[in-house]
Amino acid sequence: MTEDTALATLLAATHGAGGAVTPPIVQSSLFTFDSYQDFADRMAGQTSAPVYTRVQNPTVAAFEQMMAQAEQGEAAIGFASGMAAISSTLLAFVKPGSRVACVEHVYPDAFRLMERLLRPFGVEVNYHPVSAFENNPELLAGVDIAYLESPSSNMMEVMNLPRVTEHAKRHGTLTMIDNSWAAGVFQQPLTLGVDIVLHSASKYISGHSDTVAGVVVSSHDHITRIRDLTVPLLGAKLAPFEAFLLSRGMRTLVARMRQHEATANRFVDRLSALPQVRKIRSPGPDDTPGLTGRSGLMAVEFDDSVDVPTFCDTLRHFKLGVSWGGFESLVMPARIGLAQAGEQNSMQKFGVSPNLVRLNLGLEEAEDLWGDFAAALAAASQH
Ligand SMILES: *Cc1c(COP(=O)(O)O)cnc(C)c1O
Predict the structure, then answer these.
(1) Ligand 1 atom nearest to CA at 201
(2) Which of 40, 53, 316, 352 pairs with 164 at a CA distance of 20 to 30 A?
(3) Architecture of the structural domain at 253-380
């Protein structure tokens, strides 16, 4: 039985048992076999029924199928977190001496993974601005992996993905992109030539600030490599219950993204009229090929008249905190990331304005959010 038919059988059985429309949570660590021969065939690779939940689980497989479809890929793998997806994917493809070209303003913990784990293992990592990936066709000569974000973290810089992947294909460079911002709804990088798409599913895919999870989508070949190597050997699996929550999130994903977009459009229209706003970082359709929407995660740079701590402390609907993609609106001031203790992060290395604040526009009433934002800005500014 293939994995797909095993899942279909399981779902059909559930339907027969009571007409359930959601995937059952198969909370079992292992799966037994009817006979010695079935067990032997499975372990010899003749069949692909689930064996052990570290590697395969029907509830997880149901979510993986949904994600493969959403990103127009051939297959997907769920992980325990976005960082597990990123590390398990990178580690499946690098070896000592590999060269990685990474976009500047990459997610801070992805930067630390490059610097603290990959580099000490002999992987060469170089960082480049978006414009260099686009305009220097020789940038990727001799580069094994291009690790991309579009838009990038905090700075929200978008990249012309068809152009960059064309350069990559000429040099035989494998391309990976973190697509958490677009959630597979506003951008499908596999259709733009990217090889591997990664997500923090903790954000829009979950959508309810109640799950930490990740997912990778790609071709059968790349997914098989990750499934054979780092899925079993690093073991950062997605749990069945989390997979159930993510499948639930997927059902409302498009509707939620439209609502985030409507609020974000309203903010962008009005932000440009505020004298304290120096720059709006909120990519949308028309800003780069293949981008079809504007998500609710944006950044705004204030001028020096604004006292950022006062702004944050005056907000009522927006809460202060990390992460994004849920119901609740959040604010994340760049100066907190810039002052973070410990190893250098990408914000410190590549520079972000201390007057930048990242906004997660949630699903609350848009006018309440705008009123809150405008009042806090007025209270915090000397204009
Ligand atoms: C949150 C985030 C991650 C990490 O995901 P976790 O689920 O927290 O491990 C990776 N990339 C981006 C862009 C993120 O915002």
Answers:
(1) 7
(2) 352
(3) Alpha-Beta Complex (3.90)
